[in-house]
Amino acid sequence: MGNDALPPDERHASALAAWREVLGTARVLGPDQARARYPQDTSGTRRALAGALLPGTVPEVQEAVRLAQRHAVPLYPISTGNNWGYGGAHPVRDGCMVLDLSGLRAIRRLDPELATVTVEPGVTQAQLRAHLDRHRLPFMVPATGAGPRCSLLGNALERGYGLTPYADHFGAVTSLEAVLADGSLYRPALAEMGAPDVDEVFKWGIGPYLDGLFTQGAFGVVTAGTIALAHRPERVESFFFELREESHLPAAVAAVRAILTDLEGVSGSINLMNRRRVVSMVEPFPAAEVPPRQAVPEEVVARLARRQRLPAWLGVGALYGTAAVVRAARARVRRHLRGVPTRALFLNRGRLGPLRGLSRLIPGALGEGARARLESLALGLEILEGIPNEVALPLACWRAGRGGEPGARDPARDGCGVLWYSPLVPMRPETVADYAGMVTRVALEHGIDPLITLTSLSARCFDSTVPLLFDRADALHGDQARRCFAALFQAGRDRGLLPYRLGVEEMDRFARLAPGAGALAARLRAVLDPGDILSPGRYTAQEAERAGGKGT
Length: 552
Ligand SMILES: Cc1cc2nc3c(=O)[nH]c(=O)nc-3n(C[C@H](O)[C@H](O)[C@H](O)COP(=O)(O)OP(=O)(O)OC[C@H]3O[C@@H](n4cnc5c(N)ncnc54)[C@H](O)[C@@H]3O)c2cc1C
Known about the structure:
By secondary structure, this protein is an alpha+beta fold. The protein has five domains: 8-100, 2-Layer Sandwich (Uridine Diphospho-n-acetylenolpyruvylglucosamine Reductase, domain 2), CATH 3.30.43.10; 107-228, Uridine Diphospho-n-acetylenolpyruvylglucosamine Reductase, domain 3, CATH 3.30.465; 235-347 and 392-400 and 414-494, Vanillyl-alcohol Oxidase, Chain A, domain 3; 349-391, no CATH class; 504-547, no CATH class. Helices cover 37% and strands 16% of the residues. The protein is built from 18 helices and 17 strands. It has helices spanning 8-23, 31-37, 58-71, 125-134, 152-157, 189-192, 196-201, 249-262, 275-282, 298-308, 323-336, 349-359, 364-384, 429-445, 475-494, 507-513, 515-528, 542-547, and strands at 28-29, 51-53, 75-78, 97-100, 107-111, 116-119, 173-179, 185-186, 221-228, 235-243, 271-274, 313-321, 344-347, 416-421, 424-426, 453-456, 461-471. It is globular. The two termini are 41 Å apart. The structure holds flavin-adenine dinucleotide. Flavin-adenine dinucleotide binds at residues 42, 77-85, 101, 121, 144-146, 150-151, 153-155, 157-158, 160-162, 221-222, 392-393, 395-396, 411, 418, 535. It comes from Thioalbus denitrificans.
């Protein structure tokens, strides 16, 4: 029997008491403790949390969910809760208990022969790296820019992307286990039917593909997942190419498409970054020259770029294979770039060593600058090899000018202001050029720096990530960033471009703009979770009614 007839306060108090019986006092947090544990997100989002639950085993998760159902208190499951720029650990709605799964940290099984690993939600990129190194296993960790302390499953469940050959992280998930809203345990059909081994090596299973329900949704609490791991090949080599002029972008897009088509399985993702994005990687934010709530003036960007000899766009890719394959691929890359006025530079960690040695001989600030850039480059190359690190995190704090403690960076706690606009962009030269022009114009109109990255997801499509950086100490600047997101969303949609993922503040857009899909999700929820206790409001139609008249 549920007790949703009780007033909310009493319901909440009796639920807390019941959870404490199961989990113990220390693993059931009240509202104040939860507020202290889960900082405001980098996007500025902070919900009124009812508390947090910290289970350590699957049966504890099941019992926690059953009690939530009985007491009609909604839960918001997170893995490590570092969903920076999309809401962090914060739910779509106020009044949820965070169901924090970071304590489920088992690497349940690693199959070195078939290269799969089954992990619980608390297993981080760093933990898997350490495990692989300890056992001398030649696999890459599916690393992201969000760094070593992020959950492998949390990222995959958001359908995040990374920087290694298996860049589509949910694409690499072959099997999921989840607790449903009634506390029962879902396992894929093949595993139930007696073939768990097959289930771990074949993503689609048999019958309706149900694992997908547990991504970007609210249909269950995922307690384990199997991930296919990419082998670290004999040679990993990155390549760089510079575009001197903005007008060279369409030709570069065509070349990227040709490289990816030609070198499928050898070329990893290719990134294109605009000048402002590259400036943000190599120069501190020029605070003294930027009026409050404004983007860096164009003449300052031009001067910094001249000083550092930065191009209009920088392309970065990686080749994976045996030494002979990579050598042959290098020639193909050069050939495909012939149509673009540029030259490719190839680099691997081996070649970087002597350069770092030489930089030590350069005295003064020049030497220091060279060493810092080579250090970042080395860390960037490590990520491409599946060795997670924090090299991408300072971006979140570029505008704020502080980056947290190396080794313990946490953009939410460090006060960084960033929310993401991350649309999918078909790999057509004219579409990409038009998109880049649109982002630049709209962002500058809103006093936000247009820092554009285009990451290839295939030879057909880029995911563009645009961090809208703002000063989190300045509420007006935060409002500006949110208005900028809305304007980008609208201008992108006018061109048929939409994000692959939304922050918790933006769920009503999904609900309103996809009424059919949203309504179907709501109908499924009505059956699977009639009490609406799991992540209420995530990617379902209900959010449209609640949001009322908010614009597109
Ligand atoms: C500088 C910077 C760089 C970044 N780079 C990248 C990048 O390269 N690629 C990328 O994808 N993202 C990136 N991000 C965004 C984000 O920080 C990452 O995606 C991060 O991995 C998400 O946090 P998490 O892994 O802790 O997942 P969580 O926050 O734990 O999970 C994300 C969401 O998934 C759902 N969820 C999580 N676990 C469960 C579960 N067990 N059951 C049911 N639902 C669950 C919840 O709705 C949760 O809010 C970056 C952010 C910053 C600031």
